[in-house]
Design goal:
It is a single chain. The protein has 248 residues and is an alpha+beta fold. It has helices spanning 7-17, 45-60, 91-106, 111-124, 133-138, 143-149, 152-166, 190-197, 204-207; strands at 34-40, 67-73, 78-79, 85-86, 168-169, 177-180, 183-185, 224-225. The strands form 3 sheets. It has a 4-stranded mixed β-sheet with strand order 2-1-6-7, with helices on both faces. The radius of gyration is 17 Å and the shape is globular.
């Protein structure tokens, strides 16, 4: 599937304009925004589609006014006894998972999403080997990310995300896996649940939820985290296919 031309540039500019967290309303994270976590893999096609289309569109429609979004690039990877990480889609995915983890670490505000969106658009077109071009396209200094992914720090970040992913209760059963306000939700309906959990004055995206997103169906039990060690689950396959939304 071809990516939207220069879409990530528009998105990156928008993210730079977004200000501090809203004080209106109350999310369970105490900031007034609803906590949202996206567990994904850099070279998983449904993950790339979700990041570049569903999540990017929601950002453009004002999602960050009501949600505090955390990206977790790890998915179904596994950690060996020696600490080596093996990724579902091979070594290149491990590299890009670490690169994206380093981007989150280097730019903890919204800037990292513009970079990750750029990388995932390349993945959509099977040109992910050109990921370093995203620095130039977005006017970003490559040094903090490059030094990170080539060092032990990048590996530690990936292990941290692996521990966070493995501690999910219930465990993820597909990629992408979206948790909204502590509960796993269908990735096609995540905006509905964010708006439902938000207690403040609803922004445009919540006033017209059907403009881009289909009607939600109540789903799942709550999610919690184990305080002890982590265990990655073998044999988990991608089962979530991101629904394509037709704009009439």
């Amino acid at each position: 599937m071809a990516a939207r031309p220069h879409h990530f540039l528009i998105l990156a500019a928008l993210l730079l304009l977004i200000g501090a967290p809203s004080s209106a309303g109350a999310g369970s994270d105490g900031t007034g925004k609803v906590p949202v976590e996206l567990y994904y893999e850099s070279l998983c096609p449904p993950s790339a589609l979700f990041v570049t289309y569903r999540l990017a569109e929601a950002f453009e429609d004002g999602l960050l006014e009501v949600a505090d979004v955390t990206l977790v690039p790890y998915g179904n990877a596994e950690v060996g006894k020696d600490g080596t990480i093996t990724c579902e889609h091979g070594p290149e995915e491990c590299l890009l998972n670490t690169v994206e983890a380093c981007a989150i670490d280097a730019w903890p505000d919204n800037v990292h999403f513009g970079f990750i969106n750029c990388v995932e658009e390349l993945a959509m077109n099977e040109t992910q080997g050109e990921w370093e071009s995203c620095f130039h396209k977005l006017g970003l200094d490559p040094k903090p990310v490059t030094e990170c992914y080539k060092s032990e720090h990048g590996h530690k970040l990936s292990l941290k995300y692996g521990k966070q992913t493995g501690a999910l209760v219930p465990p993820l059963t597909g990629i992408p896996w979206v948790v909204v306000d502590g509960k796993p939700r269908d990735d096609g309906d995540f905006v509905y649940y964010i708006c439902k959990a938000y207690k403040g004055r609803p922004p445009k995206i919540c006033q017209e939820p059907d403009r881009h997103y289909r009607t939600a169906v109540e789903a799942g039990n709550g999610v919690s985290y184990n305080s002890g060690g982590f265990k990655l689950h073998d044999g988990v396959e991608d089962k979530i296919e991101v629904a394509r939304v037709e704009n009439n």
